[in-house]
Amino acid sequence: MSIISKDIQKAVHLLTNDDVVAIPTETVYGLAGNIFSEAAITRIFSTKKRPFFNPLIVHISSIDALQNIVTHVPEKAKLLATAFWPGSMTLVLKKHATIPDLITAGKDTVAVRIPNHPLTLQLLEQLAFPLAAPSANPFGSISPTTAVHVEQYFKNDIKMVLDGGSCSNGIESTIIGFENDEPIIYRLGALALEEIEAVIGKVVIKNKKEQNLDAPGMLARHYAPKTQTFLVDDVVHETKKHLGKKIGVLVFHQSKCDDFCTEVVLSDKASLQEAAANLYSAMHHLDHQNLDVIIAERFPEKGLGTSINDRLQRATVAL
What pLDDT band is residue 319 in, cutting at 50, 70 and 90? Predict the structure, then answer.
């Protein structure tokens, strides 16, 4: 079985020797490897069963390291990096020629961010190379926000999960690309749209695409439980359609369910940030209860509520 450990030196040793290690970030756990090791990157794709057309995110330890990854940083990208790094924002920029095409799905751009987690920043500072790290879960399934989630997914498939506790933000980074130097959101995430627009003004959202992906996380079905899931405005009305079934209910801040349901309230104090942090753990919990359906309540379309709805909507798309 994979080893859950806080031993950074063990992680350094494995990564330096072309292996992969699951690492914590403030968003979700990632399955990390040396971006310049074809063996490590291929292992990431094969372990996750991730298609090669879906690019990876490169993780660096400082803004100074960006010059080794990209060739051009638009002015608005500089403003965003100054405001939000380290943090839950990924920028898609023109890549340096040294960045392997395997990382970028053959595109001339690369997704890059500085994670805001002390353990992983310490790890990155001790490595002679950046890390590529998509979420540490089988492709399309619920992202992991604890070391145990990762271990349950991969068992003997990876040698180590670097244990950094529960992820504080709980959903993936917001991904921002640039077309003619103007910003476009390719994936809604843990950095709210309102925070971004407060720094650089109005931003276009283009966060769903099925082919020739501009960034990770753009596929319509993603982050999904095995249990059939519905996203609805009226949870009580929807439960009545499934009487006689084993029902899981996922709600924002007020209980909506009688005793015949298995219910998770994401934030008793109606905090969108707390709800986002708890989202994937709640989905993991419900998905392990042998339920027939999961009914999720639609969130307010503001702040992180928009990002939470995006994740829940992708979880409901049928295969």
Answer: very low
Q: How far apart are CA 237 and CA 240, in angstroms?
A: 5
Report the amino acid identity of residue 208: K
- DSSP output for the chain: -PEEE--HHHHHHHHHTT--EEE--SS--EEEEETT-HHHHHHHHHHHT--TTS--EEE-S-GGGGGGTEEE--HHHHHHHHHH-SSSEEEEEEEPTTS-HHHHTT-SEEEEE----HHHHHHHHH-SS-EE--BSSSTTBPPP-SHHHHHHHHGGG-SEEE---S-SS-SPPEEEEEETTEEEEEE--SS-HHHHHHHH---EE----SSS-SSTT-SSS-SB-SSEEEEES-HHHHHGGGTTS-EEEEESSS----TTEEEEES-TT--HHHHHHHHHHHHHHHHTS--SEEEEEPPPSSTHHHHHHHHHHHHHS--
> Is residue 291 over pLDDT 90?
yes
Maximum separation of any 2 CA atoms in the chain, in Å: 59
- Distance (Å, whole) CA 70 – CA 67: 6
Distance CA 62, CA 304 (A): 26
- pTM for the complete prediction? 0.94
Strands 30-34 and 131-132: antiparallel
Q: Cβ atoms within 10 A of the Cβ of 262, count?
A: 17
* Mean pLDDT across the chain: 94
Burial class (CB in 10 A: 0-12, 13-18, 19+), 268: exposed
Cβ contact 47:31 at 8 Å: yes
Residue 175 CB burial class (10 angstroms; 0-12, 13-18, ≥19): buried
DSSP conformational letter for 160: E
Length of the chain: 319
